[in-house]
Write a structure and sequence with these properties.
about 475 residues, alpha/beta, Rossmann fold, formyl-coa transferase, domain 3, 6-stranded parallel sheet, 3-stranded antiparallel sheet, 17 helices, 13 strands, about 15% strand, elongated
Length: about 475
């Protein structure tokens, strides 16, 4: 007869899946171009395939506390928005317990999966530095266990579809009864006062209803959804900021509170320039392609570079105020060998350059097409001209400097082997960023976490059936 409480480090349909490693799909990355040193015209960005160097981001000494050391977070989220809120707290030092169904887990584990035997890379990039706890919240025993965990933790984060957390019996009023100091944090598609509050939302939907899609694209083309999932991740970051504020306020009041972030509201907040533009013109903000969304500025464009690849481009932007803009324009002309245009009346002021922006683009494009994108970026920046090479994901994964700084980290996943994960971009002198750790296997830490929280003592083992935790 099996024991009443069955716990394992890995819960999947196949008993062999925790030991079988799938073929490596991205264990090699491009060798990095050189670190940013003063460039020469002969600099090359050609890449060779080789294994990346594993580096560890800045990590705190073992006994040095982090900003959120001691804070315990119940992460009931899935997909991206809620997961990023919890991951942000983990990078600030909180203990994040990812509560998942013991056999299915977060749906993101199988989303866009490239292997039947391993969690998807989509899941991995969203869930480092967490511990997975398998609890079936559709059972009475699982709900009773969560109720006990709520009494011992500081933060609960959820991004279920509207009404789901209440149907499970863990709406804010119930959670507050269980623990008056609990910070109850939610991500929803629309705020609770919106007529659309019961609608489901994903990143693309939020970008559409928040104004980002209408504002993105070429002037004579259709609206386009921006590439980054900033409605999802942006909502998670806003929620994490609210949680940190609530934790500080709790030190003054002794009480928790409810925090809600709506994805539509976050995107509207990101679109402040279009809100400003409409009030200037009296019309909906027009799509401006690569132009400045808030003003007339030139150059403000992407220019093709020498090698002709899909992303061999350089973005150049000069300030729109006359003092800075004219200084940067003069430096640009000197750098590209067109000092003869210093006195050209077409380019005398930012306004004139915008009026003649097609001429500006032609002058610059004649030079960039002879340069590789990194060399051009470095030459211009050393001269004081804002410019950025269009770096794609392969460029970024190949950049060793990003590993040295901890922006990227290669970690050893127990099933996939080496994987590269984004780190945490916030650097704090008094709270060094914890080293990036591999996302947890499903149920990997159930025994560890429940034991640490006093839920796997003899008096409780008999209360938990095998199907509830793993």
């Amino acid at each position: 007869m099996p024991p009443r409480c069955s716990i394992s480090a890995r819960t999947t349909a196949s008993s062999n899946s925790s030991t079988k490693r799938p073929p490596k799909t991205c264990t090699k990355i491009l060798d990095s171009p050189r670190a940013c040193a003063r460039p020469t015209q002969s600099s090359s960005t050609k890449s060779n395939w080789e294994y990346s160097v594993t580096t560890t981001p800045n990590s705190a000494p073992p006994l040095q506390p982090h900003a959120l050391t001691g804070i315990k977070v119940l992460d009931l989220t899935q997909w991206e928005a809620g997961s990023m809120a919890a991951t942000s707290l983990a990078f600030l030092g909180a203990d994040v317990y990812k509560v998942e169904h013991p056999t299915r887990g977060d749906s993101a584990r199988i989303a866009s999966a490239d292997s039947p035997d391993a969690d998807s890379l989509f899941f991995l990039v969203l869930n480092p530095n967490k511990k997975s706890v398998g609890i079936d919240l559709k059972t009475e025993e699982g709900r009773d266990l969560l109720a006990r965990l709520i009494k011992k933790c500081d933060v609960l984060i959820e991004n279920f579809a509207p009404g789901t957390i209440e149907r499970l019996g863990f709406g804010y009023d119930r959670v507050r009864e269980l623990n008056s100091q609990m910070i109850f944090a939610s991500v929803k598609g629309f705020n609770s006062n919106s007529p659309y509050r019961d609608f489901r939302s994903f990143d693309a939907i939020a970008q559409a209803v928040g104004g980002a899609v209408a504002f993105t694209g070429e002037p004579d083309g259709p609206p386009i959804k921006p590439g980054p999932t900033f409605a999802d991740t942006g909502s998670g970051l806003h929620l994490a900021l609210g949680i940190c504020g609530a934790l500080y306020q709790r030190t003054q009041t002794g009480q928790g509170q409810r925090i809600e972030v709506a994805m539509q509201d976050v995107v509207i907040s990101f679109c402040r320039m279009s809100i400003a533009r409409t009030q200037v013109t009296g019309r909906a903000a027009e799509r401006v392609g690569n132009g400045s969304p808030s003003s007339t500025s030139a150059p403000s464009a992407i220019y093709p570079c020498r090698d002709g690849g899909a992303n061999d481009y350089l973005f150049i932007y000069t300030a729109r105020d006359e003092a800075s803009g004219n200084r940067q324009w003069a430096a640009l002309l000197d750098t590209i060998g067109r000092a003869d245009l210093h006195d050209d009346p077409r380019f005398a002021t930012p306004e004139q350059r915008y009026t003649h922006r097609m001429d500006v683009d032609a002058v610059i494009g004649e030079w960039t097409i002879t340069q590789d994108k990194r060399t051009a970026m470095e030459l211009l920046n050393w001269a004081g001209v804002p410019a950025g090479a269009v770096l794609d994901s392969a460029d970024l994964l190949a950049d060793r400097e990003l590993y040295k700084s901890g922006v990227l980290a290669e970690v050893e996943h127990p099933v996939r082997g080496p994987v590269v994960l984004p780190g945490w971009p916030v650097q704090m002198s008094g709270s060094p960023t914890p080293a990036v750790t591999a996302p947890p296997l499903l149920g990997e830490h159930t025994e560890e976490v429940l034991t640490a929280l006093g839920e796997l003592v003899d008096t409780h083992k008999e209360d938990i059936p095998p199907a509830t935790v793993r």
